[in-house]
Predict the structure of Calcium-activated chloride channel regulator 2.
Amino acid sequence: MTHRDKAGTVCNLKIVTLLVALSPELLFLGAGVQLRDNGYDGLLVAINPQVSEDQNLIPNIKEMITEASFYLFNATKRRVFFRNIKILIPATWKANHYSQVKQESYEKANVIVTDWYGAHGGDPYTLQYRGCGKEGKHIYFTSEFLLNDDLTAGYGSRGRVFVHEWAHLRWGVFDEYNNEKPFYINGQNQIKVTRCSSDIVGMFVCEKGPCPEENCIISQLFQEGCMFIYNSTQNTTSSIMFMQSLSSVVEFCNSSTHNQEAPNLQNQMCNLRSTWDVISDSSDFNHSFPMNGTALPPPPTFSLVQAGDKVVCLVLDVSSNMAEADRFLRQQQAAEFYLMQIVEIHTFVGIVSYNSKGEIRTQLHQINNDDDRKLLVSYLPAMVSSEAETSICSGLKRGFEVAEKLNGRAYGSVMILVTSGIDEHISDCLLTVFRSGSTIHTIALGSSADNNLEELSHLTGGLKFFVPDKSNSNSMIDAFSRISSGTGDVLQQCIQLESVGENVEPHHQLKNTVTVDNSVGNDTAFLVTWQTSGPPEMVLSDPNGRKYFTRNFIINQALRTARLWIPGTAKPGLWTYVLNNTHHSRQALKVTVTSRASRSAQPPATVDAFVEKDSTSFPHPVMIYANVRKGFYPVLNATVTATIEPETEDPVTLKLFDDGAGADVIKNDGIYSR
């Protein structure tokens, strides 16, 4: 987080080995920000859709990053600068002179501009969830910070602030100040000001104005009402991670200027190492050298992109491999769930199936009401083919054709690719896939799914999922529920409240409760799925005791789904469901509950789960993280558990913690880790 100067005005894991020969054009694609020839390419800034349209905002973003580029270049001793930046404009903004997005989306942004304030107030900050030297997730700026020039008196220029936050994000260094411990006792038993470097000077201020040190420090106790105000004019040149607002500060603290005694996060997280030592050990610096000469790099170039109509195409596997382990039925159930509950209103949706060849089942239909959703469900493939061969490239080619029907290109479209087979020719279409401008989310069913599949997601910035062949696993529906529109508008997105699967013995029941928070409740739906025979006997009770029975559910016998929509806004509190297996054989029963925000002014609680890396081997651990928030406020003291589903073994459940111990970096930041 940026320090404000007091001197002025105040998932599912699958182990895979990727063996794909990439063409030179693909070598640097699909990996976010890349450093090439000392310049950063691919930096993405996204403006939250809740931010009101203001044409002053974009020039200020450009000015900030341009200044930051030169400041960063000098601070890193001529090593790095910003070359190419894209700014993602909300679809709600009406000006139409922006370029069409390709694979850019809000979730992929490195920098987010928002109107919502969080735990840090209006201060710029970076979400860091890993340890020293590890990249963070996003930088956050408020539109107020970018538009109100009066704030620069406290923060310093916006370009300097950007470099401070970039060092958090890219290189995993931490703040060198500590607002909670502005003073400390050094090794000589003296009270000192928390700062870096120690050469930064200032004065003590008491309640009535400047005062000598002895009036503030009595018997080694700092007196209430005293402050230390830093002089606006300094001779020292460091440090950017302490107070970038000082005009003399143009460097990071190094081994000779670093204050190892200061009780700050940098010392705590990085084992007393200076910020420059950590930065110098980064992969950026291991693969770059200072630029020759004295000339400055060129200023950054900016591209303004905006999403058009939302276009999604389901690319579904119908090969004979799908007949195994009820894969085809689970694909149908998950696709129907996505079409009926997840995909947002006004989205254009098409459906393609494939085995050795691709087939267009329906061209794009725009979803404007429930009848449109039901019509799309009717186009889902009804049976598997006799062919075992799968041609993923053929399926994707048909998907691109469907997307291109709207405006001649597939730019900004989304492909949801489901597959269960091996395809040795995926590499044949990697370049076509990237050039399409489409984002591909891949869902691999069973251990026979092709290991090279994930490269499609990597190249296009899509999500990747693995679904085990287990009758009681709800992973297929969970995967579809994670695929959002990519606009960043959480007020319009579907929130999954419950996902449970269990093998229920004859004449036994599955019983559980679901909490509906008062921030959600609109468009609430309970979905029950089963694998064999008829539906279970279902009873649902709301917090006031009103009951819904099997007869109240809409039952689709062909897909083996039962759905109950709650009219209006669902009552907040505990909802209880009971599923009775009335059959003479064991049933795999699964329950999924979804809802949407109840009020436009109050964002719902959301959970964003991710792992540090998605492939590993013994004995190297995988770190699991869950970012639990309401808007930009962390949700504290939550009970967070992660379920890991191996390919063949039973699921493993782990409790995640936000206590600052073990894998958890910072206590009470809303990032729960294990």
The mean pLDDT is 91. Residues 11-22+308-485 form a domain with the Rossmann fold fold (CATH 3.40.50.410). Residues 57-75 form the longest helix (19 residues). The two ends are 24 Å apart (CA to CA).
